[in-house]
Amino acid sequence: MAQLFRIASMCMAYLLLASAADAQEVASTTFDAESGKFLFDAVGKGIGAGLVILGAGLGIGKIGGMAVEAMSRQPEVSGNIQTGMIIAAALIEGATFFALILIGFLM
């Protein structure tokens, strides 16, 4: 768990410090003259979309695993657990679709 926290904090530090590097003048090799956009825009948005999908997958996997665990411990309330699991997974997927659509509009 400590290693996961260390990796997450390093990623956040990189993302926070990358904005200062973006403010600098960009070399002509990273500029697409046809569209007028930087070539790294698509890469950054792709990484953002990947992180959104990764987070959603981990969240839904955790919900499913814990729900199966709870159903095996208390089979008499498995219907209620399954309903809660499906609602939580649907909410996570809804937030994921919203983020992906937002990233798509920004492209």
UniProtKB/TrEMBL annotation:
GO cellular component: a single term: plasma membrane
TM annotation in the entry: 47-65, 86-106
GO molecular function: lipid binding; proton-transporting ATP synthase activity, rotational mechanism
Keyword Signal: yes
UniProt-listed PROSITE patterns: ATPASE_C (PS00605)
Functional note: Key component of the F(0) channel; it plays a direct role in translocation across the membrane. A homomeric c-ring of between 10-14 subunits forms the central stalk rotor element with the F(1) delta and epsilon subunits.
Protein name: ATP synthase subunit c
UniProt domain V-ATPase proteolipid subunit C-like: residue ranges: 44-102
Species of origin: Botrimarina colliarenosi
